[in-house]
Design brief:
With about 300 residues, the chain is mainly α. It has helices spanning about 10-30, 40-60, 70-90, 100-105, 110-120, 125-150, 155-175, 185-205, 215-245, 245-250, 250-270, 275-290. The protein has one domain (about 10-290). Helix content is about 75%, strand content about 0%. The longest helix is centred in the last third of the chain and has 29 residues, at about 215-245.
């Protein structure tokens, strides 16, 4: 196993870049929805990313696995990590803004803590973790509750779809942990390839993958979505993990909602609501609390 080193300034720059890139995906989805359906956006995103990463594997002279079991795990991971979440996020963004989406996505940190506590034996709750989860989820409740009080059932449905997508992201990690002896880049490319193998044909069979005379901004957003927030982000994420570890990488969740609101304001003229600002404070506060260097007793 490769030895990691303490984070340097360049690693912090990479982390900020990754947060900016990942959060820009929600802005691109909102633009692409002008001409493409949610399923088509998810499918093209996967296909473009797969066609981008597969050549990188070959250039780096890495080998894809040859056993059926690993490819079956790739397929299952692709369903939970790519196909269903990408479709749910694109569908949900028909009803909520890109900035709101980024805040709800950040709830993945707390969902991960909840699932890890009950589904693993080595990552249990502590007092600061439980406190952070309570604070962070309060922010999500503020967002969803504000929409419900305003009588916006579609917006509530959109936010619930994003939460469901995040939950599937986390569950997919349980499958990824069962894939051993395979480089992370090969796993990423393999998962995307298996996802594109069924998402691509299904898109052409049951959807409208190539609408007539789409606006160039929608097409550009879709291409960018596949190349940068999906394919390039995979590579940047892998590099950070290999050099400085997953704990440092996890801090990107603090950046996603901040950049998400910023991109929505800068490019889409989205003005965050008061509920969004309150939710952001709760979510960021919860994340910070879970990272405090306390050593209280565990909760069983």
């Amino acid at each position: 196993m490769q030895t990691i080193r303490p984070p340097a300034l360049e690693d912090t720059v990479k982390l900020v870049l990754l947060g900016a890139i990942w959060s820009s995906a929600f802005m691109c989805i909102e633009v692409a929805l002008g001409d493409f359906s949610p399923f088509a956006i998810a499918s093209w995103r996967i296909v473009i990313a797969a066609l981008s990463l597969a050549p990188v594997v070959l250039i780096m002279q890495l080998n894809f696995p040859r056993d059926i079991k690993t490819w079956a795990l790739f397929t299952a991971t692709g369903l939970l990590y790519n196909a269903f979440p990408f479709t749910l996020i694109s569908w949900g963004q028909q009803f909520i803004s890109s900035g709101t989406t980024s805040i709800v996505i950040a709830s993945g940190t707390f969902i991960s803590l909840l699932l890890s506590h009950y589904l693993t034996h080595d990552d249990r709750f502590s007092i600061p973790k439980l406190t952070g989860v309570a604070i962070g989820f309060s922010g999500v409740v503020v967002l969803i509750g504000a929409e419900a009080l305003d009588g916006s059932p579609t917006a509530v449905a959109g936010q619930v779809a994003i939460v469901a997508a995040v939950t599937l992201y986390i569950l997919s990690s349980l499958i990824i942990r069962r894939i051993t002896g395979v480089p992370t880049l090969v796993i990423s490319a393999g998962v995307l390839l298996t996802s594109s193998a069924y998402m691509g044909p299904l898109m052409f069979l049951f959807d409208d993958p190539l609408p007539k005379q789409p606006d160039w901004t929608s097409v550009a957003a879709l291409i960018y979505l596949g190349l940068v927030p999906t394919a390039f982000a995979y590579l940047l994420r892998i590099q950070i993990i290999q050099q400085v570890g997953t704990t440092f990488l996890s801090q990107v969740s603090l950046l996603i909602p901040i950049f998400g609101l910023f991109w929505g304001w800068l490019f889409l003229n989205e003005i965050p609501t008061q509920a969004s600002w309150v939710a952001l404070i709760f979510v960021l506060g919860g994340m910070i609390v879970t990272r405090l260097p306390w050593t209280p007793s565990r909760i069983h």
